[in-house]
Amino acid sequence: MKEDFSAYPDVRKFLQYLAVEKNTSALTVKNYGADIAVFIEFLKTRYSGGFNWNDISVPDIRSYLAEMNGKKYARTTIARRISALRSFYKYLQRESRVKQNPFVKVRTPKLEKHLPVFLEELEINELLELPDKTDELGMRDQALLELLYATGCRVSELVGLTLETIDLGNMFVLLHGKGNKDRLVPIGHTCREAVERYLNDARGQLMAKYHAKAHEQLLVNRLGGPLTDRSVRRILDKYIKQLALRKNVSPHTIRHTFATHLLNHGADLRAVQELLGHANLSTTQIYTHVTTERITSVYEKNFPRA
Questions:
Q1: What is the tens place of the pLDDT at every residue in 116-135?
Q2: pTM of the prediction?
Q3: Among 178, 197, 233, 294, the one annotated catalytic
Q4: Which residue in 100, 158, 132, 119 sits closest to 277, CA to CA?
Q5: Catalytic: which of 12, 80, 97, 252?
Q6: CB–CB of 294/263 below 8 Å?
Q7: Considering only Cβ atoms within 10 Å of each terminal Cβ, which end of the chain, N or C, has fewer?
Q8: Of residues 203, 255, 256, 261, which has the active-site annotation?
Q9: Cβ(165)–Cβ(113) under 8 Å?
Q10: 287 in catalytic set
Q11: What distance in Å separates the CA atoms of residue 154 and residue 47, rounded to the nearest whole number?
Q12: 252 catalytic, yes or no?
């Protein structure tokens, strides 16, 4: 449901600023709007006669935190909402709409750090061997899985690939990532062969069989239409069940696997950052914890005086 901020022009201007000047994705702008809307509803109960953004104080924010804690909201939800409001007030302060940002005086809940789940090299190799390469949908699945692992792309980036954004001759794909940022990522020979096989022997055949409307999306569904995020998850789930893995594997797990394997084989952290499309190196650094844990485990198991 689209939030109505007609009574709050500062919020509308902030969301427009995010979309136009900051080039923030539509989903992120929508989430910011939703988080601010929840805070507005809270303020309406606290200020029955109406409020001004300058009225909001640290005690108001602490009461808001207490209400969310009382409702047993997850720490991640609370932290996200406070972060959105802190950014909103930073904007208001920059535009001289408020004198100070009370959110800078409030700490967000400390979040537990969860190390990313990834597949071992044997596991990913077994996964990539599962699709039936003699079947049209199997060839599609093979190309899909190879692209996920070879590029470390997000699901949205995968389904966003078109015939023009993949260059098999030079072995590159152009991924359209977060914040409308594009990046070139190389692919290996195995991935190229899988995509070539799919393009030559499966994509056109699937579209013709079901008289699908012409489109430029690289990956198609069983009826020849563009593949969706949900379909990718469903396809991956099918093969994970065949492997009988006990890990909770999603398309993002393959992204974690891509990054972890690169670092395990000596890749530079900044190069991995570029390949993943991370804006900040700190986001990529979580993978160093994974590889450090792995090194420590190997050391403890194999060094006689560990």
A1: 889 999 999 999 999 999 99
A2: 0.70
A3: 178
A4: 158
A5: 252
A6: no
A7: N
A8: 255
A9: no
A10: yes
A11: 43
A12: yes
